[in-house]
Amino acid sequence: MAIHGGAGTILKANMTDEKEMLYKNSLREALEEGWELIQQGKSATDAVVKAVEILENNPLFNAGKGSVFTNSGKHEMDASVMEGKYLNAGAVSSVSNIKNPVLLAKVIMDNSDFVYLSGKGAQEFADKHKLVFEKDEYFFDQFRYDQYSNALKNDKTMLDHTVIDESENDGDKEKKFGTVGAVALDKDGNLAAATSTGGLTNKKYGRVGDSPLIGSGTYANNKTCAVSCTGEGEYFIRAVCAYDVSALMEYGKLSLEDACEEIVNRKLVSLKGEGGLIAIDKNCNIAMPFNSKGMYRAFIKSGQKPEISIYRD
Amino acid sequence: MAIHGGAGTILKANMTDEKEMLYKNSLREALEEGWELIQQGKSATDAVVKAVEILENNPLFNAGKGSVFTNSGKHEMDASVMEGKYLNAGAVSSVSNIKNPVLLAKVIMDNSDFVYLSGKGAQEFADKHKLVFEKDEYFFDQFRYDQYSNALKNDKTMLDHTVIDESENDGDKEKKFGTVGAVALDKDGNLAAATSTGGLTNKKYGRVGDSPLIGSGTYANNKTCAVSCTGEGEYFIRAVCAYDVSALMEYGKLSLEDACEEIVNRKLVSLKGEGGLIAIDKNCNIAMPFNSKGMYRAFIKSGQKPEISIYRD
Q1: Taking a C-beta distance cutoff of 8 angstroms, is the pair B205, A125 a contact?
Q2: Residue of B nearest to A244 (CA)
Q3: For residue range A63-120, what is the model confidence (pLDDT) as tens digits?
Q4: Residue B300 distance to chain A (closest CA, Å)
Q5: CB of A262 within 8 A of CB of A208?
């Protein structure tokens, strides 16, 4: 099982030891709670949804509670989940006040004829299925608000999203692609993936990124692998990234590692797209490539200790 | 160049000669107007957008003016466009009152840092870029309204979308997957694809299908092919259909025809998904496979006459 908490310009120079420990402990907690379910014989789907739920509840990450502010001062969240056995999937975009968008994606997968719901309609569906709603205050975070006010002032629509030259990186510690995700293989050989995001600080026009898009931000297929992406969503959409890892394995006969390398360090780089992904295959190989400065990430395998990383090695 | 006006349970038994002629003439008009641009040396993108725009303006097809009613009696439309040279793309979902959603998708592709906009935010963007808006009355059609009232009465949420046993097909002539689309190859060797839809009659919960999703409903890549899909969107999303044709060609070394056959008549059938697609490759081969009873479709090649079909041959 592997998880991520976003990629981007994450530099050791901008991080205190205390903050680094906070991030690492948060990743460890989410990984271990998901992993616990796998060990109990629960499904990969249950495990990835649990890990993402915990990351959504943590204000450190841009998803759920920690979601950034849109241009109009709201929180609009996206999430998706897919399981590899029957290619079932659920996705949701542009929802507000839902405590855990990943749980909504799972309920859509399990209880709807549809795969992808959005906006107010998706909230009606959530209400019908008794998902937990939270008031705006739940999602309020002073740091996020300052980030938003600053972005508004400078009209930096894509603050979290722009590749910043290091020399210009004047102490803004949050230039990262805020997304969380998880992939897992369970004891029955089933693969699953889930992704959730609060989008871009100061985003406009109902922009939707790759996180809720099956094939772009999230994909799982028992024949090949499970993938969750994080990065500049527009490039991940145009490259159909998550599914492309699977297609390279299935049709191109590449290993998981080679397929991930091809997508993240060649295809995305050729499009000038920044970010990374986590992936696990049916033989429990794990890859966590990224072409940005860092990516919050962690993984665990049976009989081994969790490994948690932030920067390049 | 090829176009489609949707697939589904389209039976000759339910069609009058007059109506058949109406559909065929409408397809011919859209194809010829798009083709005219190709002959003038314009881009494949211009041609597919023009053909889809004309189909959107025709009340016979479920897109633009002819869009069906949602559960709340509104029109919510989706569209996308992609060009194969640099993998540029634009997409829009859940917009109301936009005369031509495909033009909005094109403006997003050309003038936005984003790829995919949705809902009210997308409409703000459209307003800023002076897209044409129409009042609700423009989209009103008595036939569509009767279809909606009937669906509401019977709580048939997915009327247009359900696979109906022929014996139950009691004269309802509109059990089709309402989508329009176009694919083209231009004189410079560039490929493009565009898709547009008014969604499902009586749809709820802000459901989004495959039409606005790059990789699922629309894809174009000069290395391989351009694809536009029509059918039960949920299956096309889970199978990442449009991109899968391209991946089978690029990584699996299949011909366009074999790749389309694999997707439409094996992969989709194994998921029990109904529909079809149109595709063109860089060598101007054209495929228009479908696993439903019929698909409104037409194509033309240089120096040849247009060919227009509805049913299986």
Answers
A1: yes
A2: B247
A3: 999 998 888 888 899 999 999 999 999 999 999 999 999 999 999 999 999 999 999 9
A4: 28
A5: no
Give the Å distances, CA to CA, from A222 to A114, A301, B119: 22, 18, 34
Report CA-CA distances (Å) from A140 to A67, A143, A268.
Answer: 9, 9, 34
The neighbour count for residue A259, using CB atoms within 10 Å, is: 27
Q: What is the ipTM of this complex?
A: 0.93
- State both tokens at B5: 């006006």
Phi first, then psi: what are they for B290, rounded to 5°?
-150, 150
Residues of A in contact with B112 (CB under 8 A): 205
| Tokens 């889930």, located at residue | A194
Report the residue count for chain B.
Answer: 313
Quote the mean pLDDT of chain A: 91
- Would you call A106 helix, strand, or coil by DSSP? helix
A111 touching B, CB under 8 A?
no
Encode pLDDT of A117-145 as tens digits. 999 999 999 999 999 999 999 998 888 88
Please check whether residue A167 touches B, CB under 8 A: no
Considering only CB atoms, which chain B residues are within 8 Å of A78?
A: none
B239–chain A Cβ distance below 8 A for any pair: yes
Cα A186 to Cα A1, B169, B245: the distances in Å are 9, 44, 30
Q: Which residue has the higher pLDDT, A10 or B219?
A: B219
The whole-angstrom distance between A253's CA and the closest CA on chain B is 9
**Which stretches of chain B are assigned E, i.e. beta strand?**
2-8, 77-83, 88-95, 116-118, 176-177, 180-185, 191-197, 207-208, 218-220, 225-231, 275-281, 286-287, 294-299, 307-311
Domains and CATH numbers, chain B: 2-69+137-311 (3.60.20.30)
Q: Tell me whether A271 touches chain B (CB under 8 Å).
A: yes
Cβ distance of A205 and B117 shorter than 8 Å: yes
| Among A70, A179, A197, A201, the one annotated catalytic | A179
Q: Is A265 on the interface with B (CB under 8 A)?
A: no
pTM comes to 0.94
Closest residue in chain B to residue A215, using alpha carbons only: B240
Question: Which residue's structure tokens are 């898009």?
Answer: A213
Amino acid code (one letter) for A203: K
Condensed to tens digits (0 to 9), the pLDDT of residues A161-220 reads 343 433 333 334 445 678 999 999 999 999 999 999 998 887 889 999 999 999 999 999
List the one residue out of A276, A116, A90, A161 whose CA is nearest residue B118.
A116
What SS3 class is residue B237? helix
Which backbone phi and psi does B308 adopt, to 5 degrees? -125, 130
Chain B partners of A112 at a C-beta cutoff of 8 Å?
205
Burial class (CB in 10 A: 0-12, 13-18, 19+), B312: exposed
Size (chain A), residues: 313
3-state secondary structure of A305: coil
Asked if B107 has any chain A CB less than 8 Å from its own CB, the reply is no
B87 within 8 A of B221, measured Cβ to Cβ:
yes
**How far is C-alpha A279 from the chain's CA centre?**
12
Backbone angles phi, psi at B116, to 5 degrees: -135, 115
Work out whether the CA dihedral B45, B48, B54, B60 comes out positive or negative: negative
What distance in Å separates residue B241's CA from the closest CA in chain A?
A: 10
Nearest-CA residue of chain B relative to A248? B251
Chain A: residue whose CA lies nearest to B70: A121
